[in-house]
Amino acid sequence: MTGQTQRKSDSAAAGTKPGAPEGASQSTIPPRRMWLWFVILLLVNFWLGRLLMPGPEEPVTVPYTLFKEEVGKCNVTSIFSRADTITGRFKEPVTYPPAGEQGAAPKGRPPATGERAAKPQEAPKAVSSFATALPSFVDPGLEAFLIDHGVEIRAKPIQEKRSPLLMLLYNFGPALLIIGLYIWLFRRAARQGGSMAGGLMGIGKSQARRYDQEKDVKVTFDDVAGIDEAENELVEIVDFLKDPGKYTRLGGSPPKGVLLVGAPGTGKTLLAKAVAGEAGVPFFSMSAAEFVEMIVGVGAARVRDLFKQAREHAPSIIFIDELDAIGRARGRMAIGGASEQEQTLNQILTEMDGFSSREGIIVLSATNQPDVLDKALLRPGRFDRRVVVNLPDKTGREAILKVHTRRVPLASDASLEELAATTPGFSGADLRNLVNEAALLAARRERNEVHQKDFLDSLEKIVLGPERPLLLSRADKERIAYHEGGHAILGLLVPGADPVNRVSIVPRGQALGVTYQRPDSDRYNYPEAYLRAIIVGMLGGRAAEEIVYGTRTTGAENDIEQATGLARRMVTRWGMNERLGLVQLAPRENPYLGGPIGYGDAKPFSEATAEAIDAEVLKIIGESHEEATRLLSAHRRHLDALAEALMAAETLDEQDILNATGLPPAPALETRKLPAPGGGTKCT
Q1: Comparing C-alpha atoms, which of 398, 394, 363, 402 is closest to residue 256?
Q2: Which residues are catalytic?
Q3: What confidence tens digit (pLDDT) does each residue in 581-590 have?
């Protein structure tokens, strides 16, 4: 008996009713502060009701002559007279003032001297209740005139008949309805264990989309190519979802969460869908940015609802894209959104601790900024496993192209192997876009199949930009031809340089001409000689202009920018200099998005070191420019021949370049070392 009384007291103290469902953490009765807001809301709604829904219509003053005319038409039902004022009602509403009546002087005539400009009258409107004034002279026949035309002469003022209850509902009804709606939402939110904001119009409900394997297009591992390493890591997850007893019988437990890390477009979301498709389980997909709202607590409510849905449909997969939007390390976020983001992150941490792997729920997430994630997310028991989804290599790119060209009719000359070799650094999304652009281009050319030229032209459009129809003079075209020819000649002369695939003097994007070089194989480690060869090739355009014309133009701006950036990274990040040695002087870059990580605006070195860095960068650029000038001066006739061919054809492929210059492709670095700046052999 005592225990029962104690339970009732606890329930009353907490503000919950006996028998309320467990987990209802909030009271079903609004607190005192909420009632104060209800009273304020009642007063505001009463004022708005009086403003937007006025009471009975006020009588409109009309001329006495109009009153007499309407009496003569039997359009007046009743009147009330007091002193020299008559009020009454019309049977049918009368438009007053009449349409076209103006209060100003006649059109075309200015007001006469001494004549006051009449005030503009109100717009015409329908009048039911009217008032008028008796004239100063006596109208003895008015009473008989009114009686003859059936007008009721009243002894009391005319008022609308309205029920007191109707007037009460008219004034307070909207406010009472709104207050009732607030109370219903408050109690509904309390029963669901959520906040007031979570119950309002479903704002706290998860926005995750559920992919049904029967209704939606089923994605399997057959639709994923080029990322075999990541795919092999997830085969175990699929096997667990199909047969969980296989892993739990020996006491083991599969990972709760798997974090997919990779550059944009590498297929992280597609890989997650393929896991769900192979396992044949429900797949709930949601972006992390959809959790965060202006109202604090909404994100946490959506997290709870998402995991609740996943439990109801277990075994299932939850996929949270761009996890870094809410998973950033706590304490580093902006003040405005810190509270909401941290609450959402805390709720995710709680939910991942709150379920067991035996329930059959796997949380997959994707990000391209793993360095900013909170350490609590990455500890064992939450996101146990990290799967890196890298950019595909040549073999992977060819496999991806085969997947995306299943429904594309290919011509006999289309070579996916050659196309894969021409697209280093392309992600799966880039390759899909390339195939789509080629198909659209072939259709625009009225072809029934997609040819190799369609792929190459689409690749040129994607990488270099669309063509610009600029009207260039012959002198400008010739200068551009020599500039691009300088890049191409050095691509054939400098040992270890990437093969020149195409040269064009057709303006594309922001460039007036383009030299496209592609590596003969995927590179993952860059020797210093290879990097210096790239810088020499970049400065070939400026060197060619100086040799042929003896002047400089702005056309080398992008070349100088890229060469300077590469030389600075050689000095500050890779230790490729003798003066500063093996010291890291620049922050590491994000391998998936680019851009520095850490340091910020602060420099981790002194001003003297900064001067030394600038000196080493200038040294590398200067030596490379001297080497480019030396090589082009020695092969001036080949440069002239290539420029002449470019003037004639505007665009040259690799074989056309070799035929025009008569030069063989550049030798590999292994067969000959890069000549020392200035040429010749150094004597010791």
Answers
A1: 363
A2: 484
A3: 888 888 777 6
